[in-house]
Specification:
By secondary structure, this protein is of the alpha/beta class. Helix content is 43%, strand content 11%. The strands form 5 sheets. The chain has a 9-stranded mixed sheet with strand order 3-4-8-7-9-6-11-12-5. Strands 1-2 form a two-stranded antiparallel sheet. α15 (391-404) packs across α18 and α19 crosses α23. The longest helix is centred in the first third of the chain and has 23 residues, at 93-115. The radius of gyration is 30 Å and the shape is elongated.
């Protein structure tokens, strides 16, 4: 299993402290997170810094790669944004709401007339039309185009920039693959870039709302996402409409499957690519509006008045870019996943953003993390691959994290971890080195990703190398980078069911015999011989049970973290 190496930094006490005026040997150097640009946290003074160590500092590098979170949006309320929103609410919102209401009523009226006699037909939980509309109905549907443009106008989109980069603007595939998916108005924006009124895929809940008439007039495909038969039927309908025999409107597909902030492209679902038919890639760019990101994720998603805030902006901006038709080769027709990945790569390159392996599981995890105000900067797929932790396990660890995070800051401070560990954290030197090991980004607090790595180490769900480093760190209580062999014998012997018993300050013969059986003899020196970390790793390679015993001792000292307070 791949895992990042752990860096062990040995710093001489005098060298580390000599540059500080008046520093004495054995004093503790306070590490400032603010000086390095890291986050700062409130904390009680505990006599010495919890993040300091007089002679040795270790930091375990992140086992899980840090990724851009595609579902994060702070939607900050700066002073400028507050003033702008208040002014917009007073001067723009009233007449925009009135205009939006009028346009919506007219659109529903026209859609209702178009839908007479041609309702969406149910097919195994999926609602769709089997054939395209005739010329008369198509002409009536076209009347919706100016109304949709007016709706965008009242939402604050005074101008929608359309860049048609096709060599032949008349050439268009029946499937429009759009990315990224930024919000609820994406369909309206794309509709401005193509002739007529395009179709799309929506949720079956629309069949119970007045919007059903619009879904019928635009020949949408409505699917029940909780019904496997409905989703299978939807894929079949998409494949049929992708073919050249379909004479109805083009079909808009958002292959990501969910709304993101657009800073990366997440995994593409295969539905649009199963048929192996050509697709037209369409790019959406929606820049920041002042200090506000209008993408409907993160705090915008929590705010039910997101549409109101959108309408309070003086002007919203969007660019719709239509690329040349992408025709798959033979290999891509045989492999929809390859086809989807190649199209995603093309669109990511054109947008100038990275790709990420985030998928549906990340959406579910982020929704819970968002409610808890906890930052989530990794993917479930990476946690599964590197730590063998699935979505349910990550949710369970998130609940434990929330219990320890008493102040609700979204991070575990040294004081909060010390409270959970109890008496075992009274030694500031040992605790400082332990906390520094877990604090992989050096921010002065443990984030959720770092917390997941801690529990993965304790549960044995990561590499032996990382577990060995943690075990050695706990045994090296002096922070010298070396552990006397006799002390290591004693420490690991305490991990077994046998109770330690001492005679004249020496370990019992029974435990010494057991430790010798596990350790063997690295050299012929006495138990005062000091083992370096490299010695310990060689020992672990020869006798893996030594690592199990050492980790058991670590787990015992940190058991309250695993169980929660």
């Amino acid at each position: 299993m791949a895992a990042a190496e752990t860096e062990i930094e040995l710093t001489d006490t005098v060298a580390a402290l000599g540059s500080q005026p008046g520093a004495q040997r054995g004093s503790v150097r306070v590490l400032s997170s603010e000086s390095s640009g890291a986050r700062s946290f409130r904390g009680r003074q505990m006599g010495v810094s919890l993040l300091s160590c007089p002679s040795m500092r270790r930091r375990n590098e992140s086992l899980v790669p840090v990724l851009q979170n595609p579902f994060e949006n702070e939607a900050c309320w700066s002073q400028r944004e507050v003033l702008k929103t208040v002014a917009g609410a007073l001067l723009l919102l009233p007449w925009r709401l009135l205009g939006l209401l009028v346009c919506a009523v007219l659109a529903l009226f026209i859609a209702g007339l178009v839908s007479i006699g041609v309702p969406l037909e149910a097919d195994r939980g999926c609602y769709r039309h089997y054939t395209a509309f005739g010329p008369c109905r198509k002409a009536c549907v076209f009347l919706l185009k100016p109304l949709l443009r007016c709706i965008l106008f009242f939402l604050g989109f005074w101008h929608v920039c359309v860049l048609d980069r096709r060599e032949d603007s008349a050439k268009q595939a029946n499937l429009l693959v759009v990315g990224p998916h930024l919000g609820l108005v994406d369909y309206l924006l794309v509709a401005m870039a193509v002739p007529g009124i395009p179709s799309a895929v929506g949720k079956s809940d629309m069949a119970k709302l007045p919007a059903y008439f619009l879904a019928c007039a635009c020949q949408l495909i409505l699917v029940d996402v909780k019904n496997k038969a409905s989703k299978a039927t939807c894929k079949e309908v998409i494949a049929l409409r992708a073919g050249s025999t379909w004479e109805g409107p083009p079909l808009i597909i958002f292959p990501e499957g969910y709304i993101t902030n657009g800073r990366v492209l997440t995994q593409y679902k295969q539905g649009a690519f199963l048929a192996g038919e050509p697709v037209t890639p369409v790019l959406l760019r929606m820049p920041m509006n002042g200090d506000w990101d209008p993408s409907w994720v993160g705090n915008n998603r929590l705010n039910m008045l997101w549409v109101m805030r959108l309408m309070c902006q003086l002007a919203n901006h969007c660019t719709v870019e239509v690329l040349d038709v992408y025709t798959p080769d033979w290999n891509e027709r045989q492999d929809p996943q390859l086809y989807a990945e190649n199209v995603r790569t093309l669109m990511a390159d054109e947008l100038g953003v990275d790709k990420t392996e985030h998928a549906y599981d990340d959406v579910f995890l982020y929704q819970e993390a968002l409610q808890a105000r906890v930052a989530n900067d990794f993917s479930v797929a990476a946690a599964k691959r590197l730590l063998d932790a699935d979505l349910d396990q990550l949710k369970d660890w998130l609940r434990t994290f929330r219990k320890i995070d008493i102040d609700g800051s979204g991070y575990i401070t040294p004081e909060e971890l010390a409270r959970v560990l109890g008496p075992g954290s009274r030694d500031p030197v040992w605790f400082g080195r332990l906390f520094s090991f877990f604090d992989t980004d050096g921010s002065g607090a443990i984030g959720y990703r770092e917390f997941v790595q801690v529990l993965a180490l304790l549960s044995g769900k990561c590499s032996s190398a990382s577990r060995a480093k943690l075990a050695f760190l706990i045994c090296d209580e002096e922070g010298t980078g070396k552990v006397p062999k006799g002390k290591l014998f004693t420490a690991i012997g305490q991990s077994f069911a046998e109770r330690p018993s001492f005679a004249h300050g020496q370990p019992s013969a029974q435990r010494s015999s057991m430790s010798e059986e596990l350790f063997g003899r690295l050299t012929t020196t006495a138990d005062k011989e000091e083992l370096t970390f490299a010695d310990f790793c060689r020992l672990v390679e020869k006798r893996p049970q030594v690592l199990d015993a050492a980790i058991e001792r670590v787990r015992g000292r940190l058991s309250l973290v695993v169980k929660g307070p």
